[in-house]
Amino acid sequence: MNWVALKMLTGDRAKYLGIIFGVAFATLLMTQQISIFAGIMRRTASQILDVRDADIWVMDRKTRFIDEVPALPDGDLQRVRGVPGVEWAVKLFKGQVSAKLVEGRSSDGAGNGNFRSVVLFGIDDATMVGAPYELIMGSLDDLRQPGAVLIDKAGYEYMWPGEKYELGRTFEMNDTRAVLVGICKVSPPFTTLPVLYTRYSQAEQFVPHNRNFMSFVLAKSVPGENPEEVCQRIEARTDRLALTQDQFFWKTIHYFLGSTGIPVNFGITITLGFIIGVAIAGQTFYLFTIDNLKQFGSLKAMGVTNARIIGMILLQGLTVGLIGYGIGMGLAASFFEGTSHITHLAGLCIPVQVFLGVGGAVLLIVVLASLLSIRKVLILEPAIVFRG
């Protein structure tokens, strides 16, 4: 019977391919949009994950996400260091500043007094905690030079488009000369702004100074201590908000989920993809079943049970669903692979959870499409094959 079901399925090539197209298109649309959405959400907190040395972030209690951070007084650093369970703690600055390009040869005039907004990190002078791990050019030790900064690869291409990588370039921040000593790789940020790293003491010269300057205290819990318990002690001792890396990561993501229109916009597109898949696959599969009613009637007249016929229809649905899912996933993977060389799209991929989630959605599409057809077959009278 399974062989008969598959022969019936492939007998009408137009409808067979139409069902596969519907499932493949729905798979492609859902996979692409969900993966891009997941990638964008991860970018909102990517700079938290880039700090691999510390497992605790201490910040002002009013902080809602990583880009909105009230400054802390310097005294909080020593208070955190005095909390039991803290192995070490260092200060970190993060902020957005303007850079004035004072030299360059790019085609758009970059380097002729143009301004660029940049994200600046000021890392601990002694330990370099929070510095990027992967450098394309230069050395981390070069940051100890006066005015030295590192820039991420995408940021270099943004500030000096079309120019080859070259160290020693100079620009100004807060009327202070900055010298490029290295190019690094970091996780793509939510915005397309260049990401710069410098020493904390140097960052104080690059940024107009306010009463308080420190953005975060980065801390490491003593081996064997539960970081969450250490966070509770820090909060009790300092009255500051202390979060583990994972907690701060999800706090930032939850802010963007609840305070922006990104989830709604992507959710509408994903839902449309599902509806389109159900509509195309369901309608085509239903028409396919109607065209084969006499064949199903003949099978029932020969004594084939309804349960067996339902199994045949589900086999047909699962077959086109599996083929369509494979084609759609292949096209989605080809899209991300084909755009991986584009700087602003680099890093986007299909998470394992998306493979599983879209697979479940496709299975639901197939089941719904099959149900539309099964009802027509179940109420079919075998005598239909002897009429007209």
Task: Name a few traits of the molecule.
single chain; 388 residues; alpha+beta; 2 domains
Helix content: 40-55%
Rg: 29 Å
- Total of helices: 12
Number of domains: 2
Q: What strand order characterises the main sheet?
A: 2-3-8-5-7-6
* Rounded average pLDDT: 85
The description of the largest β-sheet is: 6 strands, mixed, barrel
Strand content: 15-25%
Uncertain residue ranges = 104-109
Structural class: alpha+beta
What distance separates the N and C termini? 26 Å
Structural account:
Strand 6 and strand 7 (about 175-185) form a beta hairpin. The chain folds into two domains: about 1-45 and about 260-385, no CATH class; about 85-215, no CATH class. The chain has a six-stranded mixed beta barrel with strand order 2-3-8-5-7-6. The protein has helices at about 1-10, 15-45, 45-50, 75-80, 155-160, 200-205, 225-240, 245-260, 260-290, 295-300, 305-340, 350-380, and strands spanning about 55-60, 85-100, 115-125, 135-140, 150, 170-175, 175-185, 195-200, 215-220, 240-245. The chain is built from twelve helices and ten strands. The chain is an alpha+beta fold and about 400 residues long.
Sequence-ordered SSE layout with sheet pairings:
Layout: H1 2-11, H2 13-44, H3 46-49, E1 56-59, H4 75-81, E2 86-101, E3 115-123, E4 134-138, E5 148-152, H5 153-159, E6 170-173, E7 176-185, E8 195-199, H6 200-206, E9 216-221, H7 227-238, E10 241-244, H8 245-259, H9 262-291, H10 293-301, H11 306-338, H12 352-378
Parallel strand pairs: 3-8, 5-7
Antiparallel strand pairs: 1-9, 1-10, 2-3, 2-6, 2-9, 4-7, 5-8, 6-7
Helix pairs in contact: 1-11, 2-9, 2-11, 2-12, 9-12, 11-12
